[in-house]
Amino acid sequence: MAASEASKQTSTPVAIEGPFGPVRLKWHKLRTHLSEAPFKLSNLALGWQLGASLEVDILATADNRFAVLHDPTLGPSTTGRGRVPLMPLASMRGHFHRGADGAPDLDAPVLSLAELMAPLRTLPRAPSANLQLDLKLLEGHTLPDSAIADAAAAVAGLEDAIVVGSHYLDDARRLVAAIPQARLGYDPMLAVSRQPALREPERLLRHIERRKTGVSLAYLRFDAIVAAENQGFPLVARLLDLGIETDAWTVNPGADIDDAILRTLLKAKVRQITTDAPSEIARRMRLC
Fold it and tell me: How many CA atoms lie within 13 A of 36 on its CB side?
């Protein structure tokens, strides 16, 4: 093993100890550094063996297969071109995701969900490792049954490691129903963008409470959590009372994130933080 890879294995954190227990650091798009290309296979294998919370985005293709992609178009984030929902999966083969510098990364090929999952069946899995499938949909589109079957087949044998999260709760429920032991997460922030009244923390809580059946995780923008805490409303703690843990997204180094925000997230009792830079965020949170 190269020295750089050995260093990465010992230095990339999967959680930190907060004032109310461990807080998981979810590797957003499988990234361990902000400059990396998304969905690197080496990071998937590393996180699986270290026990990380991992996240990939999935989109249905024209032939109702799932591709591991964040955007509805291949370009400019990959070396390909075209609209994903209009393309068969086979037409995307041979393309790669790009890093922050725009260069394609050969460790980050455009893959089907089945291809991404296949190596995990032969790798040792740490007990805490899990993989969130962040379900992306085009507005007005319903997930076909054949796409759900494709996802279920792709994760067969690894169901207990899977979390399905989405803005689109009804479709996420259908997907979870096809994956025994998978957990369900709901991201209400699209609803918040459409219904400004939900910016009021108590109304947001009630919105989630009405949809809570089967939901074990709520994905909330970090600034929504901070706003609720600053207003004196313990949104995250109230969700915990409902049996729902909170994931704060996306917390990355930069001007938007200061130590006061990090302290607020820890004191609010978030159980997971989504980040593209787990080492840097862990370092800063330990100093809070």
Answer: 22
